[in-house]
Amino acid sequence: MFPEYRDLISRLKTEDAHFSKLFERHNELDHQIANMETGVAPANSFTIESLKKEKLLLKDKLYAVLRKAHEAA
Description:
mainly alpha; DUF465; YdcH family protein; DUF465_sf
């Protein structure tokens, strides 16, 4: 995700607690969704769709923080 910001992501994960929390939650959702889609964890399509929407919202928030930090640099 966002390979053009790889270095900035690494820095923000250690320096910005809010960013780190958002990033961690995004990764948790990614794993949860993958497990549900492959049948490892039980879920219905509504649950999966809800988690995907939450993950997308987090991605948008992460991108906004990245853009702001990049512009400030």
